[in-house]
Specification:
The structure holds two protein chains of two kinds. Chain A has nine helices and ten strands. Chain A has helices at 44-51, 76-82, 98-108, 114-127, 143-155, 173-188, 200-206, 224-229, 234-243; strands at residues 6-15, 18-28, 33-37, 59-64, 67-68, 83-86, 161-165, 192-196, 209-214, 217-223. In chain A, α4 packs across α5 (143-155) and α5 packs parallel to α6. By secondary structure, chain B is mainly alpha-helical. Helices cover 68% and strands 0% of the residues of chain B. Chain B has helices spanning 13-37, 47-65, 73-81, 86-112, 131-143, 151-166, 179-200, 216-242, 247-262, 265-275, 288-314, 317-325, 330-345, 347-360, 372-380, 389-417; one strand at 370-371. Classes of the chains: A alpha/beta, B mainly alpha. Chain A binds chain B through residues 49, 52, 54, 77-78, 80-85, 87, 89, 91-95, 104-105, 108-110, 137-140, 150, 153-154, 157, and chain B through 316, 318-319, 321-329, 332, 336-337, 340-341, 344, 418, 420-422.
Amino acid sequence: MSEPIIKINDVNKWFGDFQVLKNINLDVNAKQKIVVCGPSGSGKSTLIRCINRLEEHQEGKIIVDGNELNENTKNIEEIRAEVGMVFQQFNLFPHLSILDNCTLAPIWVKKMPKKKAEELALNQLEQVQIVDQAYKFPGQLSGGQQQRSAIARALCMEPKIMLFDEPTSALDPEMIKEVLDAMVNLAKGGMTMIVVTHEMGFAKEVADEVIFMDEGMIVEKNTTKEFFANPKSDRTKLFLSQIL
Amino acid sequence: MKISLSQIKSNNYITNIYLGTFLFSLSIFDVFLYSFLNINITSFLPGNLSLFFPLIIGFIGLSFLRMEYSGIKIIDNLNKHINTSNFNALLTLIIIFALLKALPPALSWMVLDANISGDTKQACTGTGACWTYIKVWFKRFMYGMYPNEMHWRINSAFILVIALGFAGYFFKENLKKYLALYYVVIYPIIAFLIIYYLISGGSFGLVWVETGAWGGLSLTFIVSFFCLIFCFPLGMILALGRRSNLPAVRYTSICYIEFWRGVPLITVLFMSSVMFPMFLPEDFFMDKLVRVIIAITLFEAAYCAEVIRGGLQALPRGQYDAAKSLGMGYWKMHIFVILPQALKLVIPGIANTFLALVKDTPLIFVVGLAEIAGMLALAKTNPKWLGFAMEGYIFAAIIFWIICYAMSKYSYNLEQKYKTER
């Protein structure tokens, strides 16, 4: 077994007096797909935002692809370039067309020639089936199309790891499927993924492991099959009975 | 209490339209006759009633006209915009009547009884405005004390600067990325050199004209132009500085902004021209105009900074998150993602600041530089031309209004141009 690509050791984090993350331990291997679920306010989003240091943890160790993340990390931008992220609110850049959204970072961060970046972007947009919207602005697209563009934008950086922060929570029910389909395709392609979501169907289909968080702690960490078939903790059972 | 005359309306709305139109027109006709031709057709009525007669008639007329839909375009427009309620109808009438009353005296003073011929004070024989005064002093108001035979230098410098300002529009696709660099760094330098060598002179066979002789509208333009193009980038840096995570940068920016916002511009100008040179070494010379431009720039940059900061704060945190998650550092994130959006948001605020700046330029009179308002102040005290302050100030007001209106129109166009659906 090779070294895990993400190692999280005894991570604690506080917002003021409030402890959001309590003794988090998690290893993620390359190509593994992990789904994180739990009630709102349980620290799921904070946890994955710590992985590309959009949030800073106060105690413990987070090692991403061999680089430890702390206040001394000099190459944080390089690490972030390898970790793609998709947000609940899409966060596309409204002043740029979809194509420019996708090519901006490859051109200016990875110094890719413009032609090559556009080719790559069109290719990625093709994968999520919105290549025909490439020259529109985000405001002209539906939520589902925007979220798929956001996935394409993250993929244009050719990341090793993809983080999804409740990617379908802001979408109309009928648009959820198109986004999930794009994510399933990505998973089949062998991407390392950590997905915070309430879509248990998606978890059953692609996840290798499911993590259940509550009050800042990992309550249960199990293989997908075990997690749904016979959950260990009562808290998980309660959660599953409400959500399924 | 709500006065409703709608009960009077019969089912036949055609009658209402005719009656309403007649009464409304009658009221306007009455005021028109009285104010333009001095005929009072209601003189048979007792004093107060005669005065309020058009108002009452017009009010009744408008309430007859008020209806959901008449099919007549003019009346529908009238109803939609100025005749929506009794109160609005009354306001409409009062405004129309006030305009009708004010127009004849204004017209006769400015045009009918005014003089423009001749070139001495004695030519002004009418009771109206003496535009001769403006005509005679026109060159002074435009160019200050700049020697008459050299006005072409100012004109050509301005034409060159304006032409270069438009050059950005014609940039080829592969040069577009240098556009910001051009406008922020290269253009100001070229503009400065053009103005320095053409208007100041001193080389290339051009006679040196010291800045004390510059003045009038051209000086207004020069001061406003340089202050505008310098205070904007400086304000941008200060706005970013105030939001920086580095305490040294943040507190420096806060101190700067709060200091300059706390002092009056007139004090700053005095300091720049009187106190500042005392702190300079003996042999170091800086032109008064340059000092004034620097002073106004530093002053206005503080205001610009706060306006831009407002735009930065309006952006959702997700935009920062997204940019960071794509591996962009501070500068890339701000240049490509944050500033383009924030600046678009603050166009109205920036236009506001810039308009205020242009209208603040007359203050440079206190340090002995006479732009257009300053030239007026000089001209009105000229013994040969005493007593024409009114004409001068109206002239200056019109010019300032044109400049400011053009700027505000331009800012509105920019807003429309950069509007993308969110």
